[in-house]
Specification:
heterodimer, A: 408 residues, alpha/beta, Rossmann fold, Oxidized Rhodanese, domain 1, eight-stranded mixed beta sheet, 17 helices, 33% helix, disordered N terminus, B: 90 residues, alpha+beta, Ubiquitin-like (UB roll), five-stranded mixed beta sheet, 28% helix
Chain lengths: 408, 90
């Protein structure tokens, strides 16, 4: 049943004629929007007509999914290939305790259906790649970057520029976040801001460096706000500005981001197709270091590995040739450790080189194996030949050898 | 009178403060002066040739320095520099 076809008697434009009508239930549900003059009935119909793609259903994707659904976005696409882990629940409110072990897309779909059954959810249980990105993004009006690694961020950016889709950007680390609107209204793109990614492993992921649980809530809701403003065509978006959020000092500021005429994506347009983003970001293909992304990958130099069971066998045989070194931070050492190890935080490794006997077998570990891979490279560069990385770090040790060692 | 450099926390931890003062006639000189005072910051602010990284963006009074002369951009007393590193968490 149709309830409204325009409220002021003015002739509807072609676009407005195509906007979907709201049901009686929807009119009641969206009452607080409908009485906002800047949204009103036509705005709400625009939201219902809108197709928004969320790349990532994790920390940023959670507030995005919840608020966009509640706001009445008609179609929400979700791209994710992860399953819900207990460590996600400190911040990823799309998923609940009962969902641990389920695909994130399943729990997200259930949660969104509960928040607003009028929302149509389209899910893509896959890693976004150069091979599928254009096809997945193409049917959407707005793309939202809630990914957790540089390779996918450049991929999302370039696909948005090639397709002419606005890219609502958000990124977080520990206590600080960034947000902007790229590739829209002749504004800059992500490549204009960060022309090259940092070397693989230089910037820790949230899995490695930690993140304040509410921070993705702050930044994700800013992204949702930008997406809604963009769809409604109201206010001033973050085009041309980068919002910096600092939860510790609770300071918000913006800096200006200009379009770079030499940008290969949006400037010269030398970039005519998607590239190999793992290679661009210097990471090995599909390293999946933490099951969370690619930040910790390494593609520069081979890192010899030892599996947890083999290490356990050698330790249990009282193999005194082993020097087992934990390269995590002291606060992590206090959470869990492998018996027999000594602590040399990665940042102190250079100073501790003299304490490491090149004649012994040095085995290094961290939480997941990413930082210790860096340590192996450092030791090899210093001339140590008998060095191994414990594959999967404390996490795999807990899974395969000693479950009393806590995973975190 | 110096300029003020606002650091992201990851760099502030190395300098002991979120906000540090620096002197020089160009931004590059100010960065050199900071790197001398805080050796742990040196390689985090610029590469071994002394140039800024493409993934650590400097803003001078909210403008991207790459558009106003890079580290050669002149600075005057009271200017504010903000350093924005690329982060990817989500």
């Amino acid at each position: 049943m149709t309830y409204f076809h325009g409220t002021d008697g003015a002739a509807a434009t072609a676009t407005e004629r195509e906007l979907p009508d709201l049901s009686r239930d929807e009119i009641q549900r969206y009452s607080r929007h409908l009485i906002l003059p800047d949204v009103a009935l036509d705005g709400q119909r625009r939201l219902k007509a809108a197709r928004v793609l969320l790349v990532g259903a994790g920390g940023l994707g959670s507030p995005l999914g919840l608020y966009l659904a509640a706001a009445g976005i008609g179609t929400i696409g979700l791209v994710d290939f992860d399953v819900v882990d207990l460590t996600n629940l400190q911040r990823q409110l799309l998923h609940g305790t009962k969902d641990v072990g389920r695909p994130k897309l399943d729990s997200a779909r259930d949660r969104i259906a509960d928040v607003n059954p009028h929302v149509h959810v389209e899910s893509y249980e896959t890693r976004l790649t150069s091979a599928n990105a254009l096809e997945i993004l193409e049917p959407y009006d707005v793309v939202i970057d809630g990914t957790d690694n540089f390779a996918t961020r450049y991929l999302v950016n370039d696909a948005c520029v090639l397709l002419g889709k606005p890219n609502v950007y958000g990124s977080i680390f520990r206590f600080e976040g960034q947000a902007s609107l790229f590739a829209d209204a002749n504004g800059p793109c992500y490549r204009c801001l960060f022309r090259e990614p940092p070397p693989a492993g230089l910037v820790p992921s949230c899995a490695e460096g930690g993140v304040l649980g509410v921070l993705p809530g702050l930044v994700g809701t800013i992204q949702a706000t930008e997406a809604i403003k963009r769809i409604l065509g109201i206010g001033e978006t973050l085009v041309g500005r980068l919002l910096l959020v600092d939860a510790l000092t609770m300071r918000f500021r913006t800096v200006n981001v200009r379009r770079n005429p030499a940008c290969p994506a949006c400037g010269t347009r030398a970039l005519r197709e998607l590239i190999d983003y793992d290679a661009f970001c210097g990471v090995a293909a599909h390293p999946n270091v933490d099951g969370h992304g690619t930040n910790g990958g390494n593609g520069r130099q081979e890192v010899p590995e030892i599996g947890p069971r083999e290490l356990a066998r050698r330790l249990s045989s009282a193999d005194e040739s082993i020097d087992l070194i934990d390269v995590r931070e002291p606060h992590e050492w206090h959470i869990a450790r492998i018996p027999g190890a000594r602590l040399v935080p990665l940042g102190n490794l250079d100073q501790a080189l003299t304490t490491i006997d090149a004649g012994r077998d040095t085995i290094v570990y961290c939480r997941s194996g990413a930082r210790s891979a860096k340590a192996v490279r450092t030791l090899k560069a210093a001339g140590h030949k008998r060095v191994w990385n414990l594959a999967g770090g404390v996490l795999r040790w807990s899974d395969e050898v000693d479950p009393t060692v806590a995973k975190y | 009178m110096p300029i003020t450099i606002q650091l992201p926390k990851v760099l502030a931890d190395l300098a002991g403060s979120r906000s540090i003062e620096a002197n020089g006639s160009t931004l590059g000189e100010a960065v050199d002066e900071v790197a001398g005072r805080f050796p742990a910051l040196a390689t985090r602010l610029r590469d071994d040739k002394g140039d800024p990284y493409e993934y650590v963006v400097f803003y001078l009074n909210d403008e991207d320095i790459r558009l106003i002369g890079g580290f050669g951009a002149p600075i005057t007393d009271g200017d504010e520099v903000t350093i924005v590193p690329a982060v990817a968490g989500g």
